[in-house]
Amino acid sequence: MKLPSLREVATESRLLLIGIPVFIWTMIPIYHMFLFAISPKEDAFSGKLWPDHPTLHNFEIVFKQQHYFLRDFYVQFWNSLVIAASVGVLTLVIATAAAFSISRLRVPGGRIVMNLALFTYFIPAAFLAVPMYRTMGNYGLLNNHWSLILAMVTIASPYAIWVLKQASDKLPVELDEAAVMDGATTLQIFRLVYLPLMMPSLVAIGTYAVLLAWNEYLYAFLLLSNDREITLPVALGNFLAADDSPWELLMTTGFIYALPPAAIYYAFRRYMVGGLTAGAVKS
Amino acid sequence: MAITLSGDQSIPAPPLSSRLTPPQIWGIALLAPYLLVFLAFVVYPVGYGLWLARAPSNYVALYNDPIFARAAVNTLIFLVIGINIKMLIALFLSGFFAQQRTWIKWLSVVFILPWAVPSIPTILSVRFMLNPEWGMVNHLIFNLTGDDGPNWLNDPTVALTMAIGVHIWKSLPFWTLILMTGRLAIAHDLFEAAEVDGASWWQKFRYITWPSMQTLYITCTLLSMIWTLGDFNSVYLLTGGGPADLTHVLSTLGIRYLRLDQLSLAMASIVCAIPFVLPLMYFMMKRLSR
User: What is the C-alpha separation between B68 and B250, in angstroms, rounded?
Assistant: First the structure.
């Protein structure tokens, strides 16, 4: 074993000097949420860094829906799930079809559509929310899950199309040509050549759309209001309506709500980082 | 126009399809779902919204509403100060996370958490931490100094700063990751050559890193500014626009008008931002569509 040189020690400690504050900064709000989730109310409100009596009682209350604010917990969880899954599937279908059409079939006007989609991508979400709310009212979709699903598909597709188009532009043209020589129809090329090759990007985009929909608060709280129609984040926001909100339960529910996206993110991180960031900023 | 998959042209066909090959017909059919979504949920709402905001009286009303002026200033502070601080930190940290160390790799896995988890529980968590009576921050201040901590969210300046902090907490990982990808793309032998020539840390950054990253950095900054205009959560969930509607930004103000049933005012406040946003959007679209 060779002892590290003085210079190596200096470099390492300089790195630690950055790393430790970064770790603390990142973890504080999350740790605080976790702390509340395992604390009885008195401990949570006393500002302790670790509860005297850590407990899972809060989780029990949530899972048994034993509080006024939680009486529709399972329904709301289910709503979040259904909406996120629908947005994922619909975005994938719409965006894959569009990307295939623009990039592989070179449909006339495809470039214009791509630019329009990109333009949509840059409309600040909260700005579009205002007219979107009224539009959904005009369509008679307010308080209907479809309003949120369609709104989220609208927001997710431009980026999805763009990333998928970038990825499919990289596939060699010769593949399609060879398939045509073999007498493949357009649909067969799509199904047998295009989709299998695009799988990594499709996983990335599907994950992106699902997370976007699961995490969405603003559109959900504008478009849905009935207690049994709303998604979990809206329910969490509703906790604040009371003066004496049960914060320990709010944080427990929030913790449960935050787990699936974190798990999905880490499960598909490989695809996310490769598929999204590579395409995200081309310089 | 390159047509890669041409069908057999000699088959007699109706007028339209004689000009379009089967792949092109498929192309149009496959593009149709997105076009429908675009027409129904982008073109129609935007057109309708602009139409609602057409009356000049809306702008007079906005001009006379002190909350609007305050929100415009807050938005500028958020964008100009907040985003630049965030991007500078991201640029710095991208260099840190580009270091090849096992523990830094693990730290980067943790570091991405704020971006991976939904904002509502974490922002509400910060909100309670800052609670003047029961929050952890003021408990710590009391335990350390014996004095009561400040009423964090009751001072507009402090509250807005905290909202910017929450925004940075949430989106810093994403931008750090992007900038790190840019950094790792720089050819490594450039640094080795500089090392041999005895270049200092600053010289390496100034003459190698920055020239290869400046386009990416500026693109990211502009993109982040556009998106931050639509960041509703950081302000709404932390301060709710309070105290006394002094911490609104344009995105929360639009929603506030909407909740007060003043839709045309909400649209007008957004229309006021268009002259600033549109050039940015156009520039970004041009960059990414190359």
Answer: 8
